[in-house]
Amino acid sequence: MLVVFIGDGILTKQNGDQLANFYHCRTCNELLAVGCTINGQLRGAVNPNLLQDVNQLGNPIQIQPRLLSAGEKIERWDKLWGVLNGL
Ligand SMILES: [Zn+2]
Predict the structure, then answer these.
(1) How many Å apart are CA 24 and CA 39, to the nearest integer?
(2) Domain ranges, residue 23
(3) Which top-level group of life is the source organism from (predicted)?
(4) For the chain, what is the domain count?
C-alpha cells in the first residue's frame, strides 16, 4: 500500500523510545499514521480506523511492542510497513 499525505496539517509526536513518529491531524488530533525511517526510507502504517473499506485489509495482528527490543521493533516494521510519502 502506498500512502501519500496531502496538506500541511500534520503534527509529529514520538513514542517512548523515540523510535517511531506518530503523525496526528493538527485540527482534530486524530492519529493518521505511524512511521519510522528504515534504511533511509520513510516506512509506516496508516490508522485503519480512518479507512472506509477497512474490511479489504487482512485480519489485524495482535502484538505486544513493549516486549520487543528496539532492534526487534525495527526488524518487524521493516517486514510489515509500507512506504510513506509526503511527510
Ligand atoms: Zn483532523
Answers:
(1) 24
(2) 2-85
(3) Bacteria
(4) 1
Residue 42 CA to ligand 1 centre (angstroms)? 22
pLDDT in tens, 12-27: 999 778 899 999 988 8
Taking the centre of ligand 1 as the mean of its atom positions, its distance from the CA of residue 33, in whole angstroms, is 12
Give 25: exposed, middle or buried? Use CB within 10 Å, 0-12, 13-18, 19+.
middle
Question: CA-CA distance, 21 to 11, in Å (whole number)?
Answer: 10
**pLDDT tens-digit map of 26-76:** 888 999 999 999 999 999 998 988 888 878 878 877 777 778 899 999 999
Q: Find the 32 Cα to ligand 1 centroid distance in Å.
A: 9
